[in-house]
Design a protein that fits this description.
Length: 357
Amino acid sequence: MSSPVEISWFGALCDDDYEFLGVPDPALVSSWGHCRDIVQSADRNGFDNILLPSGYQLGIDSTAFASAIATHTEQIHLLLAVRIGEMWLPQLARQLATVDQLAGGRLTINIISSDIPGQALDSETRYRRTVQYMHGLRALLDGERLEISGDFANFALDPPRIATVDPGCPPMYFGGFSEAAKECAAEAADVFLTWPDTVASVAETIVDMRRRAGHFGRTLRYGLRAHMIVRETETEARAAADRLISRLDADTGASIKSRSLDTQSAGVSRQNELRAVADDDGYAEANLWTGVGRARSGAGAAIVGDPDQVVAKLQAYQEVGVDAFILSGYPHIAECDLVAEHVLPKIEHGALRPRWG
């Protein structure tokens, strides 16, 4: 590969860990102990970053978990998901700066624009709030006085005393596929995240987002969120994929998907479309398996194959502009170890880029 990429794992704070998809296992339910073990496995295995997702009905709180796990990790960055609107903007800035201090400067931020529990806003309004909060959060974490007058963020105040370890706002990762979401990312994000798709479709998305960001005089990085099933042979990998959904029935899958707050989003619709055009075995193209989407709202496809096939697939995405991968697999600790064994040694990756504005 021409330059190092960022490779992250997934913290599964949102009750999303299974041996058999859709079959609850008490040992894999989100808890401090289990999620701690996932994060520490990723840290020990040399992953660069780890996504700590946010839910309400599902799992445990991401910010509270991040503040605890920060002192139980050594090198891995913490990609903390925050749901815009749940926390008062000045307090959110203080929380994030505090977590960054606890982590020794290893915080990154995943901005979530979904509806917050008990409230429903139309898409345009919700993303307008998100943009205002992102601008406000960046100013406060940059140590600047915040002067903003908007429908959702209306402040004139100095930044809090506590600041991030490295001066400036940690990079903001953001994903969304509606027109409003893409414009939000182009204007205010640092890393635009896309869900699994064909290489050609991901390439089209990146071309589109480069154009949108250019209208704001900005450049973005691009990330891909995907599941992984890697085994020593392709036959073994495909068998592991089949085993994962071998106990899943349609009603259970639909029930799991419906628990998410983003089930009607444009991104979820695209994942459903990808599954609809897949072949009889669930493959939308070589080594891209859509079976995960039968019981998961959100990223609904996995890269499946032997080590060389999986690496080649990641390289294909890098060639069209992706330089950050957020990966996961079931069960999360076992697949983390397999990816670390079979994939990480074959890909040049390392510490996150310096902070940027």
